[in-house]
Amino acid sequence: MSELRGVVLNGTGGVWSVRTVDGATHDAAMRGRLKQEGAPLKLAVGDDVTVEPDERGGAGWSITAIHPRRSVLARRAPGNARGERVVAANVDQVLVVFAAAKPEPHVRMLDRFLVIAEGNDLQAHIVFNKVDLVGGTEALDALVAPYEKAGYTVHRTSVRQHIGLEALHDVLAGRTTALSGPSGVGKSSLLNALFAGLDLRTGEISESVNKGRHTTVGALLVPLPDAGGGFVVDTPGLREVGMWGLPPENLDRCFPEFAPYLGECKYGDCQHETEPGCALRAAVASGVISTARYESYCKLLLELKAIPKDWA
Ligand SMILES: Nc1nc2c(ncn2[C@@H]2O[C@H](COP(=O)(O)OP(=O)(O)O)[C@@H](O)[C@H]2O)c(=O)[nH]1
Ligand SMILES: [Mg+2]
Ligand SMILES: [Zn+2]
Prior knowledge:
This protein has 312 residues and is of the alpha/beta class. The chain has helices at 107-119, 138-149, 165-172, 187-194, 205-209, 238-241, 279-285, 291-305, and strands at residues 4-12, 15-20, 25-35, 48-53, 61-66, 72-76, 84-89, 93-99, 123-129, 153-156, 176-180, 220-223, 231-234.
């Protein structure tokens, strides 16, 4: 029987929806005996699999192999000191979307999402949508400056006025992107504007893709209708992913613009709070490092330190 390679879009109760390379989608169940050299034991959305039609005929398909992952977006399973839960496999990048206004951007939340991306070794892109709602660009430029200085690509977009859409299209096409950001910022509107035929409800993606199913699984992979292919992962919010598993002493590495100062402090284990001779705080004092970003660091550090030790 003919084997096909495919990607897991979502799953409920042991039945996985697999999109095969020919563009078809099949419901498939795991076969008892799996080939999975170097591959994970538990299947996740985004996993690269091989499926084949069931031998006894009928409409069923079996997953016969899971292929090694190139990346994971993971979080700690709550109440479980060991083991992380993979939210999605083979994610290439994270897109963090906020609105320039309505709702007002929330930089602490933005910094948290960026830390989660860095902690998972995933490249992050930032979008400020609804730029049509802000008259002058000065306030937005001031907000964006620290992120561009840190090396992030910041897209200023408007669905309404068709601004910045081509560049954003090129970021998403052909890749698997975890999409995050508060509701109401225009994530669904942007995707609809970027990919004709997507037709997401202007509401959460999950509502539109998951309608008719009673069980909501962790994440959903949405295929992009584009010649270049690509997928968007609708996670229940990266907030849900959280920062679990990130040791507090590694948090400073999740702020790319801090890099030149790490290792320059008086104490090797400096956490850049109140320690004397802190090179990072000197950089903040001299205005080289953004105070807002440093404040986010301090706040997230306190949060990470409050996580019980046996989780780390
Ligand atoms: N003014 C303006 N409104 C927008 C823009 N993009 C989306 N919206 C509106 O913002 C609201 C929320 O959009 P939606 O796509 O559902 O946001 P989501 O919750 O992030 O998916 C809708 O009423 C959209 O029409 C934009 O670029 N400019
Ligand atoms: Mg939406
Ligand atoms: Zn320091």
